[in-house]
Write a structure and sequence with these properties.
The complex is a heterodimer of chains A (259) and B (431). Chain A has 259 residues and is an alpha/beta fold. Helix content of chain A is 42%, strand content 24%. Chain B is of the alpha+beta class and 431 residues long. Chain B contains 14 helices and twelve strands. Chain B has a six-stranded mixed beta barrel. In chain B, strands 8-9 form a two-stranded antiparallel sheet. Chain B starts with 17 loop residues before the first helix and ends with a helix. In chain B, 39% of the residues are buried. The model of chain B has no long low-confidence stretch (mean pLDDT 86). The chains are: A alpha/beta (259), B alpha+beta (431). The interface between A and B is large, with 43 and 40 residues.
Chain lengths: 259, 431
């Protein structure tokens, strides 16, 4: 059984005067153990998709089954529980509590799981060891580098043993070298059997994933091996750049004629 | 990267079991308190100002209620000094307001006939003392004391007023029968006139013509209702009436046996009515006064003090509460991202609500504790500096602490609800 089943998902935003479709008819499934990149430009609907995958939001049409359970019509509390049980979030901006130590940050989701204090500590230390941060446990986020902060966030996502790791531009706020470390960490987690969904706009990152899904204007327009999808994406983006350059040139010429 | 050696988390239940829910609640509460403390410590000045606001409010309320309690207890003490079981038969009714004045004014005075009727016909009364009163100048040698309260009475006065002898003897019934020149003086008078000498046997000039011999003095009783009770001179009623005029009205003090005050009052009324030959359709033309009549008047005063106290309390609570609401709204704004993070990690709305209610209650509690401490401090100060006894009741402490908690919860509710109902995605995006 697939871990994630998206059954013709649509999401409409009601902006009062007009309705905007952020997602239209998204339909695919993700098996346990997969590493899938979701790529698309800003405004493509990939963030909306990520929010739905992460149970932060519900689709307006279609069905979303996570680990065999339909989450499209869950109550707010049930969604919160589903996030705690099934999802491990990793955000672009890390989203750590600024006033709490690394260890406390990692313990946080276990509080909502109802785990005793002793076990929380044990598991949080274990998770931090797995991302090689055992020596920074008592540091506050402000005392850590960007890469270290993202490792804390990954430890926090891992500590609940979720069925899905959901990473939103995890390397977006990192320099290329630390970004590379984090990507390495994800690939390693994938090899150990974790299911990971990476949301990114970087074709380079998508190219290293076994599978990539490309979203444009709320529609899946490519689904296949990461390399192929990324190439197609790059070409499409390249064509767009060429078109934009041509348009700019034409405008400049028109402007010159007027003057 | 090392793989976890820990066992997998227990199977994921659809709902948390009772024990897990409990563990979760305790952990959330602890976390909420820790976070609230951190949030306050991060903005010490802001927190301190709000706490000070709550503290001043709580202190004001405590002081008002303390002063009130002080008034009530000193009043009760003074009232007791009148003798708790003594009834006073008088032309005037105590605690009467203006509109009855004309009616009472035209009553006959209570006189010796009434006294004799009561002595002859009451069975319950333990002691009956007729008291006539005037103010006079008392002279001894070159010492002259003005406005001395001179009482003409009988032996029963001692019991009816709860007096005790300090020296010598009291006026006896024989003194009254004979109209002797014996007199007994209060502690103030003794101290003022006979400092460092034995007053017994000394002669005093009372008023323009009368001369008395001091036969005893009374133990100090202290002041009641703002004036001293010890500046008095007691002489036999017959001597008093001879000196100051026989038509003076009396107050007849009747001591009732404990627990039979009502029956005694009824008896007095019937004896008085019979003595005065009042028909069944006629109203009493005398009053039987009891302490609780004074108490009624006092309670009316206290009620208005109470209303003022409650009003001040409500206003200060509102001001302090608005302070709490303000600090909490700022905190919700600042911690919006944190709300988003917690929601993403599995916090329910109730968890977020609790988080911010904890912060509100913590601020209020700190303010309340400080306010109670300040209130206790001012109680001690009032006790030392003013004649009024002031002490802080443990119930006031408990009330201050619990009240401030409720204050925090009430005024924190709206900001906390607004935090709980933030959409997690919006909260996460908040800069």
């Amino acid at each position: 059984m697939a871990l994630i089943e998206l059954d013709h998902i649509g999401k409409m935003y009601d902006l009062g005067l007009s309705k905007v479709a952020a997602l239209r008819d998204i339909h695919f499934a993700i098996e346990p153990g997969e590493l899938v990149a979701i790529i698309g430009q800003s405004g493509s609907g990939k963030s909306t998709l990520m929010n739905i995958l992460g149970c932060l939001d519900v689709p307006t049409t279609g069905r979303y089954r996570l680990a065999g359970r339909d989450v499209s019509e869950l109550s707010d509390d049930e969604l919160a529980d589903a996030r705690n049980l099934e999802i491990g979030f990793i955000f672009q901006s890390f989203q750590l509590l600024p006033r709490a130590s690394a260890l406390e940050n990692v313990e946080l989701p276990l509080i909502y799981r109802g785990i005793s204090k002793k076990e929380r500590r044990e598991r949080a230390i274990d998770a931090l060891e797995r991302v090689q941060l055992a020596d920074r446990m008592t540091h506050k986020p402000t005392e850590l580098s960007g890469g270290q902060r993202q490792r804390v966030a990954i430890a926090r996502a891992l500590v609940t043993q979720p069925s899905l790791l959901l990473a939103d531009e995890p390397t977006g706020n990192l320099d290329s070298r630390t970004g590379e470390e984090i990507v390495g960490l994800f690939l390693d987690l994938h090899r150990k059997g974790n299911t990971i969904v990476l949301v990114t706009h970087e074709p380079k990152l998508a190219a290293r994933c076994p599978r990539a899904v490309r979203i444009v204007d709320g529609l899946v327009i490519a689904d296949g091996p990461g390399r192929d999808v990324a190439m197609a994406n790059a070409e499409a983006m390249g064509a767009e750049v060429v078109a934009q350059v041509l348009a700019a040139q034409a405008a400049a010429e028109a402007h010159a004629k007027d003057a | 990267m090392a793989t976890s050696a820990l066992p997998p988390l227990r199977a994921k239940p659809k709902h948390l079991g009772l024990i897990r829910s409990l563990v979760r609640f305790v952990a959330e509460l602890r976390d909420a308190v820790v976070q609230a403390v951190r949030s306050l410590l991060a903005h010490k000045l802001r927190a301190a100002l709000t706490i000070a606001g709550v503290a001043v409010g709580i202190m004001a309320v405590i002081i008002i209620f303390m002063v009130e309690a002080g008034m009530a207890s000193s009043f009760a003490k003074q009232l007791n000094s009148l003798g708790p079981n003594t009834l006073y038969v008088h032309k005037w009714a105590w605690g009467v307001n203006g509109k009855d004045w004309w009616k009472l004014r035209n009553r006959p005075t209570v006189g010796q006939l009434d006294y004799r009727a009561l002595v002859a016909n009451t069975k319950l009364a333990l002691a009956i003392a007729p008291v006539a009163e005037t103010e006079a100048v008392v002279v001894h040698g070159d010492k002259e004391l003005k406005n001395i309260e001179v009482n003409g009475t009988t032996e029963a006065f001692l019991e009816s007023g709860g007096w005790q002898l300090r020296r010598g003897r009291f006026i006896s019934d024989l003194d009254h029968e004979l109209g002797s020149d014996a007199c007994v003086i209060g502690a103030d008078l003794e101290d003022a006139v006979f400092k460092d000498q034995d007053p017994l046997g000394q002669r005093l000039k009372v008023g323009p013509t009368t001369r008395c011999t001091v036969v005893g003095s009374l133990v100090r009783k202290g002041s009641a209702f703002g004036r001293t009770q010890d500046g008095l001179l007691v002489m036999p009623l017959s001597s008093f009436l001879r000196s100051f005029g026989a038509k003076r009205g009396l107050v007849i003090a009747v001591v009732a046996p404990a627990g039979k005050v009502m029956e005694t009052e009824d008896e007095i009324v019937s004896v008085m009515r019979a003595a005065r030959r009042l028909g069944p359709d006629q109203d009493d033309n005398f009053s039987v006064n009891r302490q609780d009549k004074i108490l009624q008047g006092f309670n009316q005063t206290m009620m208005s003090v109470n209303i003022v106290g409650i009003l001040v309390g409500v206003i200060t609570a509102a001001v302090a509460g608005i302070g709490i609401m303000n600090i909490l709204l700022v905190s919700v704004k600042e911690r919006t991202r944190e709300i988003g993070i917690r929601r993403a990690l599995g916090a329910r709305r109730a968890s977020i609500l609790m988080q911010f209610l904890c912060e509100a209650v913590l601020v209020a509690l700190l303010g309340g504790a400080l306010g109670v401490a300040l209130g206790a401090g001012s109680a001690a100060l009032i006790d030392i500096l003013s004649p009024m006894p002031a002490s802080i009741d443990p119930r006031v402490v408990a009330g201050g602490v619990i009240g401030s908690c409720i204050l925090g919860a009430v005024f924190g509710l709206w900001p906390a609800l607004s935090a709980a109902f933030l959409h997690p995605i919006e909260a996460l995006r908040h800069e």
